[in-house]
Amino acid sequence: KGAFPDLLATSGDYLRVWQTGDSGTRLECLLNNVRN
Hints:
This protein is mostly beta strands. The chain has one domain. It has no helices and 3 strands. The protein has a 3-stranded antiparallel sheet with strand order 1-2-3, with no helix packed on it. The chain is elongated, with a radius of gyration of 12 Å. The N and C termini lie far apart (about 40 Å).
């Protein structure tokens, strides 16, 4: 196995970064571009 995790990014209303592995997939980070 490599030293870095397997990541997958999806976009729509937010940019979501998912980490995948043998135990499943989990949301790693949720990013949005909303400024107040």
